[in-house]
UniProtKB/TrEMBL annotation:
Any one GO CC term of the record: plasma membrane
Name of the protein described by the UniProt record: Sensor-like histidine kinase SenX3
Keyword list, A-Z: Kinase, Phosphoprotein, Transferase, Two-component regulatory system
EC code: 2.7.13.3
SMART domains reported in the protein's UniProt record: HATPase_c
Lineage: Bacteria, Bacillati, Actinomycetota, Coriobacteriia, Eggerthellales
Catalytic activity: ATP + protein L-histidine = ADP + protein N-phospho-L-histidine
InterPro entries: BphY/WalK/GraS-like, HATPase_C_sf, HATPase_dom, His_kinase_dom, Sig_transdc_His_kin-like_C
GO molecular function: phosphoprotein phosphatase activity; phosphorelay sensor kinase activity
Domain of life per record: Bacteria
Start and end residues of each Histidine kinase domain: 1-174
Pfam families: HATPase_c (PF02518)
GO biological process: cellular response to phosphate starvation
Amino acid sequence: MQELVSDMLSLAQAESTETYEFARTNLSSIVSKEALQFESVAFERNVTIEDDIAEGMHVQGSTRALEKLVGTLIDNACKYAAEASSVTVRLSRQGKKAVLSVRNLGNPIPQESIEHVFDRFYRADKARTHDDSRSFGLGLAIARGITESHGGSIKVKSSAEDGTVFTVVLPLSK
C-alpha cells in the first residue's frame, strides 16, 4: 500500500510543474548513473545493460524527477527483457533536443495496447505482466507526466523483430 501511495504522489507531482525545482541539469550524468544502478537488477534477470551516452547533455529540469523518469524506463526494460538478452540505453543530440531511448528484446507490447501504455493503472496483456505485487501500472504514467512537465515528449514502438523502444525527447538547456 505504501508503494501505491508513493506512486500516486509521484504522479501528482509529475503533473504539477510547481512542485519541481528546475535548474540546468546534466542529463548525461543522470542517464549514466541510472544505467549503472540497474546493472544488478539486470544481472538478476540474466540481462545485460549496454549504453551509448553522449557527454555534456544539459536540460532545464529537476534532477530528482529526471532520475525517476530514466530509472522507470530502464527498470521496465529490464523487467520485460527476454532472458539472456540486453537492454540498450542511448542518449544523443538531435539539433536542440536530447533524445533518450531505452530498448529491450522480449515479448512485444500488443499493438492494441500501445496507445494505452501511458494511462494510469494500465497493464498490458498477460505476456508482459509479471506476478509483481508492487507494480500498479503507474510507472509509465509518471514517466509521461515528468517528460511533459519538462517540455518534452515520450513515445513507444514495439515489435517482435525490433523489440520495444521507449523514446524521450527533451529540449536542451541553453
